[in-house]
Amino acid sequence: MAILGSGNAHGGCSLLHAAGLGYGASIGVDLPLAVRLLDKPSKRDVKDPDELLPAILDAWIAGGFKFPNELEKEDLHWAVMSQIPPRQGLKSSAALSIAALRALADATQTEVSDEEYVAMAAQAQIESNVSITGSIDDAWACLTTGWKLIDPQAESISEGVLFEGNGPNTEDWVVMIVCREERKKRPTLEDFVPHTSAYQNALEALQEMNELVALTWNGRGTVAVMNDVQGRKITNDAILNGARAAGMSGSGNAIVVIAPKVSKPTCERLLHLFESNKEVTKVIQTSFLSNEEESEDAPS
User: Fold this and answer.
1) What's the CA gap between 86 and 48, in Å, rounded?
2) pLDDT tens for residues 14-65?
3) Distance in angstroms (rounded) separating the CA atoms of residues 188 and 195
């Protein structure tokens, strides 16, 4: 068995659900995912219930690229190592798409632009029915650092980037990901219509570069869309116990909670709160993948 190529990506969390207003924004989170492209099946079974990996191969060919070593689609196999909890709204599908496409590029020594990666990832997610919007903002978040506000209806991927931000300072904040059982259903676009005011507040916060406020308003809208009573309680309890922001990511079921890193008592109190909740299956402590500003060269 030969490793033909390898690729990496990372998870993310929502700042603005793309189904809320038609605009989407997500930011990268330090949840790594690695993919290897193989010429024979891996000894470990690859879980791909949505058949996203075959759709990624189709998107690669549709993008005008070729498979390595003149192999056919059925000759290509995958190995996936991921720290992203699946089906929790943490962008596992977008990350898998980006990492697999990077593995194909590595295997074929092909130069692929960021815009091409995002376009192919969106196509694969739509074809495999894992996204109702194409998750273009998610693909950007899993590919790069910081965040971008995306118009998925734009004529091109590059024109769809309306504006972008560096993200919160990584050194200042702890990101707690409160995982629960996998979501029971996926929302429809119609489910979002009654809750546009929360998403409008999230959009306005992003326009002011206030990502933490956006995350909270977006989460309020989405727990309402999902009619998630427990998710709303976890979010409210987090804020009451010192979290600076809290909200559901994607369409759930994970709740992302942001706490000041400097306040260890607050972080410990929140961690105890979540771990004592029978609805919570796991709590992951990690950080944003924000753009590091070039402060070293800045005048003092």
Assistant:
1) 10
2) 999 999 999 999 999 999 999 999 999 988 888 888 899 999 999 999 999 9
3) 13
How far is residue 149 CA from its own chain's centroid?
14
Domain ranges of the chain: 3-165, 173-286
**Cα separation of 165 and 208, whole Å?**
10
Q: What class, spelled out in words, does domain 173-286 have in CATH?
A: alpha beta
Distance CA 227, CA 19 (A): 16
SS (H, E, C) 94-109: HHHHHHHHHHHHHHHC
CATH 3.30.230.10 fits 3-165, yes or no: yes
In 134-251, which ranges are continuous DSSP H helix?
Answer: 136-143, 189-192, 196-207, 211-225, 229-240
Show the tokens assigned to 59: 């998107």
Rg (CA), the chain: 19
Asked if the bond preceding 201 is cis, omega within 30° of 0, the reply is: no
